[in-house]
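Researcher: We're teaching a course module on how sequence relates to structure. For the next exercise, students receive a sequence and then see the predicted structure as C-alpha cells, so they can try to spot secondary structure elements on their own. Here is the exercise chain.
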Amino acid sequence: MYNAGAAGLSPTPRWDIKRPMPRRESNPYRSKATRASLSEARTPNRGRSARLPLYRIMQIHQLMQQKEYPNCQVLSKEFEVSYKTVQRDIDFMRDQLRLPIDYDTVRHGFCYTREVKNLPSLSLQEGEVVALLVAQRAAEQYRGTPFEKSLKTAFSKLVEGLPSRSQISLQDLAQALSFRPHGPPAGDLHSFQMLSAALLSSHEVAFFYRKPGDEERNERRIQPYHLGCIGGQWYLIGLDLARKAVRTFALARITKPKNLKRRFERPKDFSLDELLGRSFSVFESKSPRKVRILLDPLAAALAGERRWHASQKITPRKDGSAELSLNVGLAPDLESWILGWGPRAEVIAPASLRRSIGAALTKAASRYR
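Model: And here is the predicted structure for the students to work with:
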C-alpha cells in the first residue's frame, strides 16, 4: 500500500539515493510530444500540483512509457522543483516501487528496461483516509476565523496529492463523520504567524495584553518558549522579562505583536509537562492538592466517559454515584469546571475549595430569586 510519508507528502521527504544520476543540461532527443505533454500538464497546475510528489511520479511514468527519455534537468524546470527533488522521485520509483528504470547515456534520459503498463497500486489504507478526514473535520472548528482560509488551502493540497482511487472515498466519509466544537477560538492569523516565526527563530517579542476584567492593556516583552492549543484555545508560554517569570498568554487577548529581532537562548530544561503537569488545564500550579468530588449517578456516568486529568480516579458507589479524585492545583479553570456540573457535583475536599464553590453557587442562585 502507499506510504504517504515515504512518497514525500511530508515537506522534506528523505529517500536514499543509491547511485548518482548523470546531470545533463538538455535532452536532444526530447520530442515535440514530450514538450506538448509537459506543457499541457503544467499549465493548469503551475505552483501547485506540479510540486506534489504523486503528480510528478505519474508524469514521469507517462513520459517513460512513451519512450520520451526525460531527464532531471528538464523535469526540474518543468515541475518548478530542484534537480535533487526529481532525483529523489526517480529513486523512489526505482527502489521503492521496484520499477525497471535505467539511464540511457546515448539519449541522455531515463527509460523503462521492460514494458510497464501501470504504476504499482498507490492506495491509502482505510485508517489513513479516516485520519485525513478527521484532521479536516477538526480544522472546521476554525470556520469563520482568520485561520479558515489557510487550513482549507493546506488540506486541499493534501487531497490533491492522493491517488485517484483509494479504498475509501473521502466524500463518503464526510457524510459519516463530523466534528462540532463548542466555542471555536477567536484569533488573529497574522499574530499567530508572527509569534510562531519568532518562537522558531528564538527572537524576543513585544505585544499589548489585557487580562480579563482589566480596563487597560499592558505592554509585555516576552521570550517565547511554546505555543499550545489547550482546551481548544491557543496560548503563548514564555518568560516575561519584566516579571522575570514564565507566564501564559491567551492569543485572543494579544494585540499589536512585534518581533524584536533580539535573539535569546531557550532553556534546555523547559518542559510543558513539567510546567502544566500539576494543573487542571492552563493555569500553572506548583502546589497540587488532592481534590475529592462527589458526583450524582448521571454526572458519574458522563464524567467516566472522558479523561479529565492524568491523576483522575473514579470510585463508584452502590447507588450509582461516584467519587472523583484529582491531584491538581487549585485554580480558576478547575473551579469553572466544577461549577459546570451545577447541583450534580459536591466538593468534599479540600475545605477551601468547598467554601469557594459554595459561595459561587450561592451568588449564582441569588440572581434568580
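Model: If you want an answer key for the exercise: The first strand starts at residue 101 and ends at 104. The CA atoms of residues 89 and 349 lie 62 Å apart.
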